[in-house]
Model the fold of this input.
Amino acid sequence: MQRVVLFGTRSPLLPDYEETCSRLGLQIAAAVRADARRPRILDRDAMIELSDLDEEYKSLPFVACAFYPKRRGELAAMADEAGLVPAEALVDPTAIIASSTRIGNGSFINAGVVIGAAGVFGEHVLVNRSTNIGHHGFIGDFVSIGPGVTLAGNVQIGKHSFIGAGCVVLPGVRIGEGAVIAAGSVVRHNISNGVLVAGNPATVKRRRPSASVFDVEGEE
Done:
């Protein structure tokens, strides 16, 4: 992969995507502005409107650029509808990833992340800065993690879940689909689908009406 399309220009994480591409020597062929809100990409010359996505760009792989699973899912669906295909995982060269761990297409592993052996990561996963994930981690599609999260060994996280900044998840814990773990929480026990938990130890604060995190509020 020598060129990539960044799909979405709104997220405050856009400069991190750009920095990772730069460190990898990867050319940003285009950054697609998917809505009318103020873009946050640093290289405005790379930005194009969604309506300007022509066949040249459609032959290139994309990464959906948003931190929250809801928006990343929306952007991935828009890119798929436009005929693009997900890129191989975008992994910052400062990250340390075990050779036995597999990371799905469309995922972004930010700077300073450490991931242990025998992990399985789904598609469009985002792992933010300085997160540490232990051996045999299983991370579902569209999960967002970090920054500064510690997941011990044998942790499983269901698809569309959100793990806030600075959380600690103890060994062997299972987190259900569409769960939200508030920043700074310490998770000692299994977490059901579609709940919001917070605290040390983390306890249920709210049961959400759907197991999908696509209604989590927040700035991309």
About this structure: The first strand starts at residue 3 and ends at 7. The first helix runs from residue 14 to 24. The domain at 90-213 is CATH 2.160.10.10 (UDP N-Acetylglucosamine Acyltransferase; domain 1).
